[in-house]
Amino acid sequence: MFTLADLPDLTGRTAVVTGANSGLGLETARALAGAGATVVMTARSKDKFDAAEADIRPTNRTADLRFVQLDLASLDNVRTAAEVIRSEYPEVDILVNNAGIMMTPEATTADGLELQLGTNHFGHFAFTGLLLEPLLAAGDARVVTVSSGMHHRGEMDFDDLQQQQSDGYDTTAQYARSKLANLMFALELQRRFDAAGVDARSVSAHPGYTATNLQSAGVQLPGGGLFHKAASIGMRLLNPIVGMSVEQGALPQIHAAVSDVPGGSYWGPQGPGEMRGPVGSAKVNRKARNEADAARLWDISVDTTGVTYDALETSTGSVR
Ligand SMILES: NC(=O)c1ccc[n+]([C@@H]2O[C@H](COP(=O)([O-])OP(=O)(O)OC[C@H]3O[C@@H](n4cnc5c(N)ncnc54)[C@H](OP(=O)(O)O)[C@@H]3O)[C@@H](O)[C@H]2O)c1
């Protein structure tokens, strides 16, 4: 059973954690810093980073914590953040694509993309692609993309990925789609690492049901209706009863980031429904394993974000 006692010495390693000011990201940053890594904690504002740093510092006075401002809901901002990281950190050993929003009212990113898919998937697709250089420079780098048990409920409706043609906005379906996209991306990235023969691993993890801000942050955003109010109350009541502690919930993604796990693996809690329990191999559903769909999503993501993964192009110009 994986615990924090199993973390290897990460002195000299650089890790980047998105959404590191809250919940699972904060816990992941705390663990990686505790093992000696330099941890670049992305947050949407310096104030949020400062609060997170103040949370870690009392138990780790020497933690090497760095701030980079990142808003995944703006591709310009993603480019700027990646540029800052590339210029300051020639090697990135671990990237944890953790940030996320859930069940928000209908809204769009700065680029006009549907907010949940835009933030959770397209933002991380762009961010990872823009960090390929320092990741590949590190040797045996690890990219961890946080998915969810909700990926099982996700559908890749390629005719209407952003619900532009649907009547009414199904926020739950869109969150599930974004988490399916996260897992498909993680698996496809590993296939592309393999095809290009590069020394890096892409893995995924999910935290079951962990009590964090996730359950209230999205549903409380302006623009929500009755459904969002009811969901907010429901999840506030459920969280302390059903939710795992954030310390336990973060273990799958920490394990995925530091243990000697195979590329393309997926980790989560082992209890009923993978909702809680010790870390083990998690179930990847048929839709997430569909390689043709993953390649299609990849091409759409390149077109949507303008970010290409040139370093993974093979000598024939294609990775497939
Ligand atoms: N908790 C669970 O039960 C559960 C279950 C399955 C999957 N997950 C996944 O776990 C990951 C972490 O979530 P959590 O539970 O730790 O929730 P959380 O406490 O709400 O943390 C989410 C983090 O993402 C950041 N974020 C939100 N929008 C962003 C944006 N546009 N740009 C950059 N960062 C942004 C948040 O920043 P702000 O503080 O500025 O909002 C926060 O740091 C998510 O990917 C989520 O889908 C969680």
From TrEMBL:
<keyword id="KW-0560">Oxidoreductase</keyword>
<protein>
    <submittedName>
        <fullName>Putative oxidoreductase/Short-chain dehydrogenase</fullName>
    </submittedName>
</protein>
<dbReference type="InterPro" id="IPR002347">
    <property type="entry name" value="SDR_fam"/>
</dbReference>
<dbReference type="GO" id="GO:0016491">
    <property type="term" value="F:oxidoreductase activity"/>
</dbReference>
<dbReference type="InterPro" id="IPR036291">
    <property type="entry name" value="NAD(P)-bd_dom_sf"/>
</dbReference>
<dbReference type="Pfam" id="PF00106">
    <property type="entry name" value="adh_short"/>
</dbReference>
